[in-house]
Design a protein that fits this description.
The structure holds two protein chains of two kinds. By secondary structure, chain A is an alpha/beta fold. In chain A, a hairpin with a 2-residue loop joins strand 4 and strand 5. Chain A contains ten helices and ten strands. In chain A, 35% of the residues lie in helices and 26% in strands. In chain A, the strands form two sheets. In chain A, strands 6-7-8-3-9-10 form a six-stranded mixed β-sheet, with helices on both faces. A four-stranded antiparallel β-sheet of chain A has the order 2-1-4-5, with helices on one face. By secondary structure, chain B is an all-alpha fold. Chain B has a single domain, classed as Methane Monooxygenase Hydroxylase, Chain G, domain 1. Chain B is built from six helices and no strands. In chain B, helix 1 runs parallel beside helix 3. The radius of gyration of chain B is 19 Å and the shape is elongated. The model of chain B has no long low-confidence stretch (mean pLDDT 93). Classes of the chains: A alpha/beta, B mainly alpha. Chains A and B meet through helix 8 and helix 10 of A and helix 3 of B.
Chain lengths: 254, 221
């Protein structure tokens, strides 16, 4: 499959934890300004692969990789790669909302401040902008100084998204972003992601296959560390080529 | 086997039952005509409501499964196929009723001439319906492609039947009321064969995930 707009090009990429091979020789492209979903049973390596895209696995001492992961045609695992810069451009939102124990405003302003932006008016603008983009502004504009931890689960998750957006990332990685949320909050986040893909490339790991079907343009199915099938979400859910994919998405696995 | 598998098998069984009812209706309606058996024709007309009821029941069951099970991949293709071919079967049932109605009318009149083309068309059409349903149950094989090919034979017989009756009508305009009804019946059979073709095309979709409707594809590839 040729994607002219490939933002990430993963080539023969493997991830090891010590002796354990968690991701096996994966080759896949991530297209810009689209939502790509990664699905598969627990332990299939999908979160490991996701975390490799902004080198979060570096935090695990036993982790090491083989192959190439090109971002804008540059290998992010090159010894001279700037990991801080990479994580600014490729943000991540986790399963459990994890705002800093700080005000709503400070949660969003934290990144820009670290980057050296000090001017109050400029920070105000960035915070408002990020909260608007995360579809949270209307709900929190009168309580910017309240603790981020005082918000509801869905609001906290959108606060975390706003915090990532304040860094003006090109890519956002989502690891099960709605599995701790109720259906309404989940629908809000799903709508938000579909809106955000116009400006940000999104990769999402989800256990919720319906969620992948609802929001993604491309779906990858992983099993035992291998990328079994990658394709248009329509094709994967209507007419998958691989028998394993079919068994998984029709709930007849194992 | 999951409970969902059982539910899918139940849907298949219902579609098959509907298919058998429609096959019977087609056979009986043509027999009522050829053997001038008006009681049989009335039977076909009387039983049509059973076809309609089963059609509705299959649709309801499919919608229920879509809502509650959110079927994917081959399950989704099976359910959408069941819904579509049910509609085709129900239409075939209506056409069998139309044949029976014409038979009732023609049976009141002296016979124009022995039937030749119509029993031939009926035999091919019935085998198409049977094969299409066998393919639905048995799964993927060459069978649906064979069904699609047979449609041409039925079309040809329909044209031949029309031309023969047309020349008779030109010779003797008094027979026009009877002859026209015969052309209707052939047309009904030709429509039934078209519905059987639709079913075969949906079975190919169910197997391969490829819509071949309104394309020139007539063979496995």
């Amino acid at each position: 499959m040729v994607e002219k707009n490939a933002l990430f090009e993963i080539r023969n990429f493997s991830i090891h934890y010590g002796d354990f091979l968690a991701v096996k020789n994966v080759t896949v492209n991530i297209e810009a300004h689209k939502i790509t979903a990664i699905i598969g049973p627990s332990g299939c390596g999908k979160s490991t692969l996701l975390r490799a895209l902004n080198r979060m696995n570096d935090l695990i001492v036993t982790a090491w990789v083989e192959g190439e992961a090109l971002f804008h045609e540059v290998n992010i695992y090159h010894k001279d790669a700037d990991v801080i810069e990479l994580r600014k451009r490729v943000g991540m939102v986790f399963q459990k909302p994890n705002p800093f124990p700080n005000s709503v405003y400070e949660n969003v302003a934290y990144g820009p401040k670290i980057r050296g932006i000090k001017k109050k008016s400029q920070l105000d603008e960035i915070v408002e902008n990020a909260l608007v983009r995360a579809d949270l502004w209307k709900e929190v504009k009168d309580k910017l100084n309240e603790s981020g931890m005082s918000l509801s689960g869905g609001q906290m998750q959108r606060l975390c998204i706003a915090r990532s957006l304040a860094q003006e990332p090109e890519v956002l990685l989502f690891d099960e972003p709605t599995s701790a949320l109720d259906p309404i909050s989940t629908a809000n986040i799903e709508n938000l992601l579909q809106e955000l893909q116009k400006t940000v490339t999104i990769v999402i790991v989800t256990h919720n296959m319906q969620q992948a079907a609802r929001i993604s343009k491309y779906t990858s199915f992983m099993y035992l560390g291998e990328l079994v099938e990658f394709g248009d979400t329509d094709t994967i859910f209507v007419n998958p080529r691989n028998k394993l994919t079919e068994e998984y998405i029709t709930g007849r696995f194992g | 086997m999951t409970i969902f598998d059982d539910e899918l098998i139940a849907v298949k069984a219902k579609v098959l039952k509907l298919g058998l009812m429609v096959e019977t209706a087609i056979r009986d309606s043509v027999n009522a005509l050829v053997e001038r058996d008006s009681e049989l024709a009335k039977e076909v007309i009387k039983n049509d409501h059973l076809v309609n009821a089963l059609d509705v029941s299959i649709d309801e069951e499919c919608v229920r499964l879509i809502a509650l099970r959110q079927p994917m991949a081959r399950d989704l293709r099976l359910i959408t196929t069941a819904m579509k071919i049910t509609t085709d079967l129900e239409r075939m049932g209506d056409l069998a009723v139309n044949i029976a109605e014409r038979a009732l009318e023609l049976n009141e009149e002296p016979q124009l001439k022995p039937f030749e083309n119509i029993p031939k068309m009926a035999a091919i059409t019935q085998s198409m319906v049977k094969d299409a349903l066998d393919a639905f149950v048995a799964g993927c094989s060459r069978l649906p492609y064979e069904v699609i090919k047979k449609d041409d034979e039925v079309d040809d017989l329909n044209v031949r039947n029309f031309n023969e009756l047309l020349s008779l009508m030109l010779q003797d305009p008094k027979i026009i009321p009877l002859a026209v009804k015969r052309t209707y019946i052939a047309k009904y059979l030709e429509r039934i064969a078209d519905h059987a073709t639709n079913i075969a095309e949906m079975i190919i979709y169910m197997c391969k995930g490829k819509m071949i409707r309104h394309t020139e594809i007539t063979d496995e590839s």
